Records
---
Amino acid sequence: MDFNIKVWRQSSPKAIGRFETYFLSVISPDISFVEMMDNLNKQLSDYKQDVIAFDHDCREGICGACSLYINGYAHGPDSEVTTCQLYMRMFRDGSTITVEPWRSRGFPIIKDLVVDRQAFDKILQAGGFVSVDTGGAPDANTIPIAKIDADKSLDASSCIGCGACVAACKNGSAMLFIAARTSALSFLPQGSIERAARAKAMVKKMDELGFGTCCNTGACALVCPKKISIEHIARLNRDFLLFT
Amino acid sequence: MSCKLISKVPNGPLSQKWTSHKDSLRLVSPNNKRKLEIIVVGTGLGGSSAAASLGELGYNVKVFCINDSPRRAHSIAAQGGINAAKNYANDNDSVYRLFYDTIKGGDFRSREANVYRLAELSNVVIDQCVAQGVPFARDYGGMLHSRSFGGTQVSRTFYARAQTGQQLLLGAYGALNRQIAKGNVKVYTRREMMDLVVINGEARGILVRNLVSGRIERYGAHAVVIATGGYSNVFFHSTNAMHSNGSAIWQCYKKGAFFANPSFTQIHPTCIPVHAKHASKLTLMSESLRNDGRIWTPKKKEDVERLRLNTLQPSQILETDRDYFLEEQYPAFGNLVPRDVATRACKRQCDAGYGVNKIGKAVFLDFSDALLRLGRDEIEDRYGNLFQMYQKITTVNPINQPMMIYPAPHYTMGGLWVDYNLMTTIPGLYAIGEANFSDHGANRLGASALMQGLVDGYFILPYTIGDYLADKIKVPFTDVNHPVFDETEVTIKDRISSLFSDNRSNSADFFHQALGRIMWKKVGMDRSDAGLRFALRKIEELKSAFLEGIYVSGSRYDLNYELEKALRVSDFIEIAQLMAFDALNRKESCGSHFRREMQTKEGECLRDDISFMYVSAWEFNGIDNPPILHKEILEYDYINIIERNYIL
Ligand SMILES: Cc1cc2nc3c(=O)[nH]c(=O)nc-3n(C[C@H](O)[C@H](O)[C@H](O)COP(=O)(O)OP(=O)(O)OC[C@H]3O[C@@H](n4cnc5c(N)ncnc54)[C@H](O)[C@@H]3O)c2cc1C
Ligand code: FES
């Protein structure tokens, strides 16, 4: 297969970025998008050029590091996958593929395709946990939890914190990300005690950090590689109202 | 035992050792804890749980990781589950059985007292995680559900679909976040440890490279905890994440910490085989699948041929023409034999010409019986996301056709030598999680790495580190302008400079792949005297080739993955050398370490307990000299040493 890869290059946070197009040949359809990027980087390195910076680590769709905006979609054209689980067989031979970083006020660009997502950590630090210390926990079976609640909690807790939802949102809102965590905890008795205060603190932090507000277009849930449902945002709003 | 290796295993009956040891550990009062600093390197299950718990106690903690967020540590990828001796299934499980299974699974090459403590503390880990809001699988009555993993005959593995590591890490990361918000823990992301600082014989700090600015930064502490995971990426292709590395433990080794059992590396039987040229890593298919999946190859060579030519579908092969070789050979454990046993059996099958993919290097993992027995919904509920992962990679849905799987490097039992307090041979330097060697002997049982990481971080280190720090309350914060920091920084900068030269042309990946080929062929599943000697020669050649040929593009004062890789690969080459050296020294087969010369007539491991019932702990002896071997003799006071047998 042959591709023209049109990539956003930006040497530093303040530098002016631009698209560069590279021709890449002989790619097996069975390699992933990040492996294609490896190949491209090898080609650049062979020509003694600076390689393209992009985040990745587990390459199994679970760490949430990879974060490319491909042909106008966060994580590309396939559904329910991260960039590292997107395979080149999804693309037409000979086509041009446009690769951009997440673009959002909350995620400033560090270099090329790498953005700074520390804001997500800060939002979770504001309350995305159950306030228990190590030690002294009661036996795990003391409080029964209905299977359906545990399953729903796990569905929400499947969020990998990649930021695709923010990248896809025209307002750059982090509501789906927050809602995934608040729901994951609210479905469980251990987490529901602090639900109202948690919702309040996390949304407040989100606002402080420059993310936009949610206007329910649902773009976030569409691109989510883990199928986190927009229903969680409604639940988050309920938790939030509980507080006020 | 060597005079330098004092394991500090307490006296007294096995089941009382930890209790009485805890009582003898010194304490640090809350006021004094504030005067003490601890560095934790790594934010996987080991690092996050430790940093959070130490922060809660009131110490000043600094925690470091390579990724942009602590949550992305490699632990996030763990799939199948975590063991605990809860006996909720009423199947006569107990602390003793978990302990015994783990010792036996490790082929009698781990320290009895440590393993007992691990089993003893396994239960409170589950309690702790539930309290944090980890959504473990539940049965319809609302109680925790468990399943079985290899090497056991009970159901003691707790799980959250195939996302157990993710959920446990989100729990630990939540606890960590809480301490960060309180100001007890400071987190430093996108930092890679470059060296350990030892002052007056004690660990007093680290130097890191800020991966964004490229600058070298200095951090001091009263104690340093290494939780940087395993070094399976020495094989190039492994199930580990791309940034998993052995560099931090290697730096500690070079500063005087002993490296234990470097050759004990686990090859996991059920992974998706290399699917394309340029594939960068291998994907694990969790051991939990062996609860319901059956492993087989055809009995007839002609069926194998036709499978390879794609003129026969696996479902067309008659039941009587299938060789369910694990069930045949190990009736008592069947498909749930330990990993090393399953791996060797798969390899034997493929070596004998029964491999089912085009290149003859795969066996089937088949769910058709389970689908009939349990129905599609139940199977999808249990393994849905693994099936999806498999399908995305191979385009085949395991509901319709059996998976094809093959062994791949996965976990390293070897690591920094630690005593019962998890302290290395450098005072004040601790190692936890996969980075230490402590509990798994020559082979780790499934679902016990998560257990160990969390036991170390939540419940052991916070107690034992206090005993060391009790002496340090009058010691001021480390002065990062101390000459040792200066010297170390110069060495690091020289090392980085030496990697940049325009006259050279090979990338780090080029050398990494070459190293991987040597290691996989000669220091992988099948080791021999001649093969290991050959590997040592080849690694030595590669080391020189690397120095002469490595090309790194870009700048050192910038985000530069090529530079990061080059630094890690140069360490991998040296680690590989020590692995081969250790494997050559150990002229026995045990667990994952299979020496061709030492096998039973059935092709199983032949241990030599008289000569090798010890932990090999290697001391660095300068770059040009062979390392020095120290032996920690393993003494088993409470269990009978037997030949490992999974047949009866
Ligand atoms: C695919 C897969 C599935 C698995 N499934 C299971 C399972 O079901 N059950 C089970 O028990 N075990 C499982 N394991 C094993 C288990 O996941 C690991 O052994 C365990 O998570 C290791 O945890 P850790 O805290 O020691 O290190 P890791 O989670 O590897 O974390 C290492 C940390 O150290 C940081 N780090 C590394 N080097 C440096 C450096 N030089 N400087 C600064 N920071 C550094 C990293 O950024 C990271 O934060 C699995 C492993 C794999 C690969
Ligand atoms: S690299 Fe981890 S999710 Fe893609």
Note: The CA atoms of residues 380 and 387 of chain B lie 8 Å apart.
---
Amino acid sequence: MSVLVNKDSKVIVQGFTGSEGTFHASQMIEYGTNVVGGVTPGKGGQTHLDRPVFNSVQDAVESTGANVSIIFVPPAFAADAIMEAAEAGIKVIITITEGIPVKDMMIAKEYLKGKDVTLIGPNCPGVITPGEAKVGIMPGFVFKKGRVGVVSKSGTLTYEAADQIGKAGLGISTAIGIGGDPIIGTSTKQAVELLMNDPETEAIVMIGEIGGNYEAEAARWVKANGNSKPVVGFIAGQTAPPGRRMGHAGAIIGGAEDTAAAKIAIMEECGIHVSYSPADIGDTVVKALKK
Amino acid sequence: MNIHEYQAKNILKSYGVRIQEGLVADTPERAVDVAKQLNAETGTEWYVVKAQIHAGGRGKGGGVKLAKNIDQVRELSNQILGMQLVTHQTGPEGKKVHKVLIAEDVYYPGASEPKEYYLSILLDRAKGWNVIMASTEGGMDIEEVAEKTPEKIIKEWIDPKVGLQGFQARKVAFALGLEGKAFKEMVKFISALYKAYVATDSSQFEINPVLKTSDDKILAVDAKVNLDDNALYRHPDLAELRDITEEDELEVEAGEAGLNYVKLDGNVGCMVNGAGLAMATMDIIKLSGGEPANFLDVGGGANAQTVEAGFRIILKDPNVKAILINVFGGIVRCDRVAQGVVEAYKNIGEINVPIIVRLQGTNAEEGARVIEESGLKVTSAIVLKDAAEKVKEALA
């Protein structure tokens, strides 16, 4: 099982021949991901990393049967790339690109509504199902195979959590980097729900940060669904000042609900096992599984 | 990106939004000149002198004053220009005022009482749509209204596929209790405002107050405009409105070096790869008994140049008593980062605060060895908990 990506995923890379696309596509191939080709408009017919390059996602899907796409297209063209992938019938679109204008994402997200497609990101590290497929930019070796699902807004903090989980003798079923932008395709709650319904996932780690209400929404959903699997939560930015953007476009405290303290309080109310320190995520998972 | 009130009003006006007219000045003499010009253009005999800084609460802080003649314009501009204006948003040190906006008086008496309203447009992140928020409680802090009288906040969500429709603007204007000419003016005001919001790729508009004048005109008395940084590439004219004198000097310098840095008030500096881990590192500093002196994300390629630039910026902050470097090496190898740290340290020469380098991920052990064999006064750690302990020891 696992969610979103697995050994049967047929992956294409949009922005295949650019420097980011080339580097991370080779890393994914090395990991064992089934990368079946890529898209760079105008370079169709060429071969890159021993795989075919197509002019459009439509061409790539028709020739390869691709069902997953990873996007490395520059910010100005990324929303267009997302809509193109959805139109061509791709089922899981993972957008790594950072810096897409909010207005573009708003339109892309509307365009995807009602279509049978899941968008992950943008501004995210991607998705990994250890031992099966890495569709992202994360260091694969950090993610040991196991039964803990991870949902996170951050890249390196996900690696940190996966590392602690691995050192605690556990492993990861699927780790989903949902992204740090104000508008993202899959919310914390939606990602948690996927893992909750995955029979191979026994516990879930949800890593959030200041800004927005996704963590609160996810926590309330977990409670409403009877806390059927233990969920561990960590919120970064307990010391962040209001009104300042902390790196991620979405990491900003506007109102009272945006703060780490408010999110932690809601998680506690909803029976989430809160890790107060980023150094205790692994231990908190172990304890939560024993209860 | 934040811009000044006078810049925001100019943008609004160019999209047909009626504003309180005004002209900007950077000396008392210039203020007098523009006041005379404003008198000739609008007939106003009273003038509002408004400090132009990137912070709210300027009125309460003494940065907005009414001048009833030209002499008072000179006097008040002289007072306000150059002052350290302290508001609830500036911090205790305040912000220096470099410019004043001389604005027309719009609260003149007439057929009806002037009345203030509140209007804003922003992104509703949960829904992924823009929302117009309005309230009859003009001039008040919207957070306060939301807390005490949430029923007084009107919200209208805009479908991005079709944009703002006429009936929606009318709905808001009716809900504000307007009628007759003022109603029509408000509908026009809201429509023009939304047009400006979308065309400029803004992330927030806050017009507080919006005024209904005694002769039933609707106009923006104040304007806060926040532009989407990610969209500035397609608005070079708006990008030019950036005023770096409003920003922290170290933050400007860091930006030029390609680092994402936010200055804070604490005593432990930090340098981290990735925004989420950087926030988490600030939190661990706090949990170790310190206070973070900054947020600093060096991005994916933590090398000798970025580390050196980061060191130099952190060390310019006199409050820093220790520095924690926290890098999770994924694609970037820890031994390379460690070599970068050693090289940067040597380039800078003497560093008089303890440095804790925590490297985890690819080649973490090799990284720790590079640090230990360097002979520098640098402590290394691999596990995050150890790093926290070492910060505690350094502060003891």
Note: Chain B has a mean pLDDT of 93.
